[in-house]
Specification:
about 0% strand; about 210 residues; mainly alpha
């Protein structure tokens, strides 16, 4: 894995970097950045390290990113609704909260959290599966996604990237001290840097895992 190249990649072209930071600040416009990140993954899969150009197509691919993510998050909502609904109905019937109802609610929360962790773990490989041929249905090729996700090589990349998220988030806190605009600068830097580096790493490991 070429971690150094992935870390330095967002800073290759300062014009693209500044545009990415700016777009990352604003809701809706940051959809462009999500799509741009997927283009970074695609170029990495094609063994090209140069930053891609910004295009209007980035917005479309960013929307696809969001749609796929929402679909994968739906099971979490279903689990919470089922256990929440069961607890609510029992409370109405019995006019009180019993230990059984509290237990029901806790089981729902625990299952929801565990499911969320699994989905967050596999989601990068879900996106890479979509990016490989730009086919929506490939984002739901569960057999391939499981194979690409549950192995030591991907686990290593995932954990290192989580550590990098913490590091970058901590480093960019210095900008928060700038009056009025500090929070926005920090948000933009974190958004663009992590999007490019993360998608570069995930694109590389996706191609390496058979």
């Amino acid at each position: 894995m070429e971690y150094k190249k992935a870390i330095l990649r967002p800073f290759q072209d300062w014009n693209k970097f500044l545009l990415g930071v700016l777009l990352s600040i604003f809701p809706i416009l940051n959809i462009f950045v999500k799509g741009y990140g997927l283009e970074c993954a695609k170029s990495t899969m094609n063994k090209k390290n140069k930053l891609p150009e910004w295009t209007l197509d980035n917005f479309v691919k960013g929307l696809m990113n969001m749609v796929i993510s929402i679909i994968y998050m739906l099971p979490i909502a279903v689990v919470l609704l089922i256990f929440g609904g069961m607890t609510g109905m029992q409370a109405i019937i019995f006019q009180d909260f019993t230990d059984f109802m509290v237990g029901n609610m806790l089981v729902g929360i625990i299952l929801g959290v565990l499911l969320a962790l699994v989905i967050l773990y596999i989601l990068p490989m879900v996106m890479m599966s979509y990016v490989e041929k730009w086919k929506f249905k490939d984002a739901f090729d569960i057999k391939k996604i499981i194979r690409k996700s549950f192995n030591l090589k991907y686990l290593e990349v995932f954990l290192i990237f989580v550590g990098y998220i913490i590091l970058i988030s901590f480093v960019t806190l210095i900008f928060v001290m700038i009056p009025y605009v500090g929070n926005f600068i920090s948000m933009g830097l974190v958004g663009f840097i992590l999007t490019v580096t993360g998608n570069t790493l995930f694109g590389e490991v996706y191609k390496k895992v058979k």
